Amino acid sequence: MSDTMTISVVLSTYNGEKYLNEQLESIRTQSLFADEVIISDDCSSDGTVQVARNFIEKYHLNNWKLIANKKNRGWMINFKESLKLACGDFIFPCDQDDIWHEDKLRSMSKVMEDNPQILLLASNYTTFYEEGGKKLVPNHGEEREDKSLVKIDFNEQNFFVLRPGCVYCFRRELLKYYDKYAVDDDPHDAFLWRISELLDGLYVWNYSTIDYRRHSSNATARIRPTRSSKLETVLYYDRILKMLSDFSENENIKDQENKEKIIQRLTEWNSLRIRVIKRKDIISLIYWLKLYRYRDCYFSNKSYLADLVLLK
Hints:
Blueprint: E1 7-13, H1 17-28, E2 36-41, H2 48-58, E3 64-68, H3 75-83, E4 90-94, E5 99-100, H4 104-114, E6 120-129, E7 134-136, E8 149-151, E9 168-171, H5 178-181, H6 188-198, E10 202-214, H7 227-250, H8 256-278, H9 282-290, H10 301-309
Parallel strand pairs: 1-2, 1-4, 2-3, 6-10
Antiparallel strand pairs: 4-9, 5-10, 6-7, 6-9, 8-10
Helix pairs in contact: 1-2, 7-8, 8-9
């Protein structure tokens, strides 16, 4: 990597003392060192802060900075505010309980440097469980680990975030959009994914760069969605689509007209969903039938059929 390019790692922690040492060690032993590591703790009640402090002191990590919040801000705000402190050209968000592969910083930085059109690069990841089993997470239903680089175009399907923030590397220039456009309840990875997508700079790299720990505290619960939880989701989408529309109107983006048509179509789809979920009569069935022509806006056909359950 060029000597002129710098790297920042931003790690958000909260009550993560059990696995934190393992993650910190995987950052420290990278084949390419970060120019700065920012650890922002969101007022943990366990020994997380002391674990981080002891680690920094033990290895004399002068370019590592530990921030201990005096009040809990919530993980979304903590991550957003921490990312804005980063000074590196390439910024790597980091979770507290994963394990990075030793070439993560070097390999992803090289891809970014070799491809200046990339604003955000998201890699694959390898899921592992407490029992010790591992498996490669499929990319769009296929197990690929061929180091292929895939551009993610802005469309109805790619409105959904297909990779977690812990496998991102993004250019610092994306940070300038935070204060101007970010919605309070929009996670940093979702915001960065969609903004870079609109700017034609979102790419997925089919190469695993971390071991992604799954356990009871982070595994997605298989709970049947309720009317209230679905309403919360579609109202969130409503806020996000308004933000994307505002972004498209005010920023210099390529193929603006086509992207605004996609945003408008997604808005129509989401507005119909709001009507389906809010009503509890026969009219909601009519709205649901109208949604059929927007079925490609759903993540899957199953998701479209799942909205029918709410009509019971």
